[in-house]
Amino acid sequence: MARVLQGSPIVAEVRRSWLLGLLLALLTAGIVVALVDSEVSGTGAENVGESGPERPAVTPEPGPDRAADAERVRRRCKATQSNPGGTNNYIPDAPPRDSLGSGFVITGRVRSADGCRPLDGVRVQVWLATETGGEPDNRASVRTGSDGRYRIETDPTVPQFGEPNIHVGYDDDEYGEVFIRRVVDLDDERAVVDLTLARDG
Amino acid sequence: MADLRAPALGAAAGAVVALPLSLALTDRHFADASTALALSIVAGTLAASALAIQPLLARGRRIARHQLLGAVVLGLVLVHVGALFAESSSDAWFALSPDGPTRARMALIATLALFAVVALGALRTRLPLAPGTWRLLHGYLAVVVIALGIGHAVLTDGALDDAGTPVLLGLGVIGLLGVPAAHVVRTRRARQRRPSSP
């Protein structure tokens, strides 16, 4: 190998200039740090994909135990924070829809940060890219039931900028707005996105 | 006997371009894509193929084809990025932001390195750099462009999944091996041309 590179101007340069070698080593280290520091799917974009049978929602029934009820009221759950990219391709006031196709489900539970109780009748907006259109074409408003659960079926997801994204947002008046971006795998059948909403102020 | 090296190399280069492009064009994600996304996929796929070939075009004294392909790669990457902005500017800005995913950060660094390596090539005679320094910087930046550009394509879900992944990895290996190979060939040829010392 040494014989092959005999007379190589690069080898001679590396031997001669330690400063250039140091510069390139620092540049390489900077690139490695920049990559290691990033999150695989973007900041805060957890993978919320699931496959297989849906798990039934379990809601604690109010019982005769007054102490337990009082404890529940005092509880405070951590509010869901918006994450970067949550408002990408958001168009306000998605139309109410029962379905955006079939083959994939977006579901989750919405509860109040104050008391951790399920929220009934809250409007949640969802949008995603599917086999039949981009994010602006596949958006819907859905409302939670008495157990705080919302659910909408869509066509199967497709990658949007390199990965299937699910957007879920809340921006009505009663609670502070939340816009989140989550990811799933291409073969997932369902995305589970729970929201905990807090009042402003 | 006629020299068959040139036709063989031409056929190999054709395969390097045709194989990933045919995989991308026949993938179901390409069928679902909008016009802008389809343009972005084609430009990105051709750029990946060109990155594999590009170092090997620098092995001889005549580098006109190497320079031309360098300009083509730059053009393809600009079309790729421009088409993504046309597809969704908010997703494109997000990808370029510090909160973007790892694959986008790889693409951003590879693109910046591509700008630098093309500028270095275009300004070669005007820069006050020793030949060895210039070649070291040019080769280093080429490795960054190939490694992170192909890495970006591998981590991206879409038209080059499944069989596309080993093909992309193959392109990366060819490109990365091509950088030192071209240097060795150039060095050997320069030594052969040099008059032997008495």
Structural features, described:
- The complex is a heterodimer of chains A (201) and B (198).
- Chain A has 201 residues and is of the alpha/beta class.
- Chain A is 18% helix and 24% strand.
- The longest helix of chain A has 19 residues, at 18-36.
- The mean pLDDT of chain A is 88.
- Chain B has one domain (13-193).
- Chains A and B meet through helix 1 and helix 2 of A and helix 5, helix 6, helix 7 and helix 8 of B.
Tell me which protein chains meet in the greatest interface and how many residues each side has: A-B, 42 and 45 residues
The residue-averaged pLDDT of chain B reads 92
Q: Give the helix/strand class of chain A.
A: alpha/beta
What is the CATH architecture term of the largest domain in chain A?
A: Sandwich
Q: What is the number of helical segments of chain A per DSSP (H or I, 4+ residues)?
A: 3
Keywords:
heterodimer, A: 201 residues, alpha/beta, Protocatechuate 3,4-Dioxygenase, subunit A, 6-stranded mixed beta sheet, 4-stranded antiparallel beta sheet, 3 helices, elongated, B: 198 residues, mainly alpha, 8 helices
How are the SSEs ordered, and which strands pair?
The complex is a heterodimer of chains A (about 200) and B (about 200).
Chain A: H1 9-16, H2 18-36, E1 49-50, H3 66-74, E2 99-100, E3 104-112, E4 123-128, E5 139-143, E6 149-154, E7 165-170, E8 178-183, E9 190-192, E10 195-197
Parallel strand pairs in A: 2-6, 3-9, 3-10
Antiparallel strand pairs in A: 1-9, 3-6, 4-5, 4-7, 7-8
Chain B: H1 5-25, H2 28-32, H3 35-53, H4 64-87, H5 89-96, H6 102-122, H7 131-155, H8 164-193
Helix pairs in contact in B: 1-3, 1-8, 3-4, 3-7, 3-8, 4-5, 4-6, 6-7, 7-8
